[in-house]
Amino acid sequence: AQRVTQPEKLLSVFKGAPVELKCNYSYSGSPELFWYVQYSRQRLQLLLRHISRESIKGFTADLNKGETSFHLKKPFAQEEDSAMYYCALGQTSGSRLTFGEGTQLTVNP
Amino acid sequence: EPEVTQTPSHQVTQMGQEVILRCVPISNHLYFYWYRQILGQKVEFLVSFYNNEISEKSEIFDDQFSVERPDGSNFTLKIRSTKLEDSAMYFCASSRDWSSYNEQFFGPGTRLTVL
After folding, report:
1. Distance between CA A86 and CA A102 in Å, rounded?
2. Which chain B positions have a beta carbon within 8 Å of A43's beta carbon?
C-alpha cells in the first residue's frame, strides 16, 4: 500500500531564510510525486510535480528514489509562502492521490 | 480561469439523515473525484468517476456513499445515513485525463457537520 509521510506539522522560518519541507513515501511501483499548496482561505492547488522538474515560485523538489523522498526546497523564503503544503503520491495506473498529513509553513518578517 | 465549484460551503445535518453534496467540475474535464479531510487528519481519497461509472473507490467509500452525474454539469456525492464520523471537509476535484500526471483541480470544499 502507498503511504506519504510529512514529519513536520509546523515549520516556521524567517523571511530570506532557506526552507525545506520534508516528504517521504512508500510505494511498490514507480512513484509520481506532487506538491500541493493551500493558501489561507483558498483551495488546494498544484504547486509542482516531479515529472516536470520545474521550479515554481522559487520552489524545487527532487525525487530521491534511494531515500524515497521528495523534499520541497526554496533558498529564500518569502512571507507570501506562508501556507499549508501537502505532498501527494499518484499511482502509475489509476488516478487516486495519496496525501501526506501536511506541513503548515509560516514565514515571519 | 475556470474553477471547480462546490455547494453548499457548509452543511449541518442530523445523524441518520441523507445529504447530497454538489460539485460542478471544469467543463472540458472528463474525470471526477471526491476526497475528504476529517479535521486534523489527512486528505483521503474516496472515489473517482469516469464515463458515468465509478473508476476506483477506497475502502472508506462503503454502501452508504454513492456518486452520480445527473446532468452534463453536476457531480454529486450522496451519503445515505450520516454518522457522526462523517463530519469532515469534502473536496471535489476534476482532471482532463486519467493519468495522475494530469493535474487534479480542486474545489473549495463543503464542510459537513453531523450532529
Report:
1. 4
2. 3-4, 106-109
